[in-house]
Design a protein that fits this description.
heterodimer; A: about 150 residues; alpha+beta; 4-stranded mixed sheet; 2 helices; 10 strands; elongated; B: alpha+beta; 7-stranded mixed sheet; 6 helices
């Protein structure tokens, strides 16, 4: 009798563990790591690609190829107008130098605009479109350099 | 024969990396030593703010003060340095921020006129109460830099090599905390500001 209960427990235990592993594997299957290269210096500074499409849950990796840059959200926390979903926390990579890789996980659907603190005036900015975004966001242009607006539009 | 091109590519790679490293290092100077316990408010020279007001450092006496030295044309670290000062300011509890002043001192006295600083403050969305971007005579800026331990030197391309330093002054203008380097944690410096503000409020009551 004792062995019978143990066998049942063991069976359900294995079933549960199997499910956990399977769930993890399924989740991993649907999470992508999307790479954005950070290149150039001064007027030549740029994110490549400047606009990326991802799915919520995806991880973005910013790979700095040259120069010194940041990946900074258009968000009042960074003294800029809000140009990302309001419910999401702001982000700022801090200064990154050649060879650095910085990761950002995008969890919510929406359009996220970001810029490089040292090179914003030169149009060093980018956009992340996460999930199915039906309409273009009506983000404010005030306080955004024209060079950045050209990239984001 | 095949090893020669490989060797050349390797040497080129190493030289490029070294050049890049030197380029970054050229722009950064280590912060110098300071004489602790000496008030910066003894520096009795006039400054002009981005609002075109003439002030003396001693006008800020009684407040917790954040000082950051920078220059407006910087396309590398100064925007990050200003962001660091902003992060520190932002860490102070909202109700106490009113009692905190931030001084952005330019060492580019040729280019950063009050009008240029006004545009800079506006662009950085820091034309807000409590924030003052200031310039003065070369010698005055140099004297303040020495007291803060900020080293800077103008390069042939018009840019500056400089220390990256955010300094907190107590109500008497003495250095209470220095945060050297970029992207540093600001909790301890914010705690120092809090204690200065709280002590001032208690004294007033």
């Amino acid at each position: 009798m004792k062995y019978k209960y143990s066998a049942i427990l063991c069976f359900f235990g294995c079933l549960w563990m199997g499910n956990e592993v399977l769930a993890h594997q399924v989740q991993s299957l649907y999470i992508d790591t999307v790479s954005v290269e950070v290149k150039g210096t001064d007027e030549d500074a740029r994110f490549e690609p400047a606009v990326v499409n991802v799915s919520p849950g995806d991880i973005l990796q910013f790979v700095v190829r040259e120069g010194r840059h940041t990946v900074t959200a258009y968000h009042p926390d960074n003294r800029r107008p809000l140009r990302m979903p309001g419910s999401v926390e702001s982000f700022d990579s801090g200064l990154l130098t050649s060879g650095d890789v910085w990761f950002l996980t995008i969890s919510h659907t929406g359009v996220y605009d970001y810029y490089c603190l040292p090179h914003e005036r030169m149009g060093h900015a980018g956009r992340i479109i996460a999930g199915a975004v039906e309409a273009k966001p009506d983000y404010p242009d005030e306080g955004i350099p024209p060079a950045v607006l050209r990239i984001l539009k | 024969m095949k090893t020669l091109p490989i060797l050349l590519i390797f040497l080129f790679g190493v030289t490029s990396l070294q050049a890049q490293h030197h380029h970054a290092a050229d722009n950064e100077l280590e912060a110098g030593k300071i004489s602790a316990g000496y008030s910066l408010y003894h520096l009795d020279a006039p400054w002009t703010t981005h609002r075109n007001e003439t002030v003396k450092l001693s006008d800020f006496s009684g407040s917790a003060v954040i000082v950051v030295m920078f220059y407006g044309n910087c396309r590398e670290v100064c925007p990050v340095l200003i962001q660091d000062a902003w992060r520190l300011y932002n860490r102070v509890e909202t109700s106490r921020r009113e009692a905190v002043k931030v001084l952005g001192i330019t060492f580019d006295t040729d280019n950063d006129t009050p009008e240029v600083l006004r545009k800079y403050a506006k662009y950085e969305q820091l034309d807000i109460p409590g924030w003052h971007f200031m310039t003065s005579e070369d010698a005055t800026v140099r004297s303040l830099a020495m007291m803060l331990g900020v080293q800077y030197s103008k390069k042939s391309d018009g840019h500056f090599a400089h220390s990256n330093l955010v300094t907190v002054l107590d109500k008497e203008g003495k250095i209470a905390r220095r945060v050297e380097g970029l992207n540093q944690p600001m909790e301890e410096a914010a705690a120092v500001i809090d204690s200065v503000v709280i002590a001032n409020k208690e004294k007033e009551q």
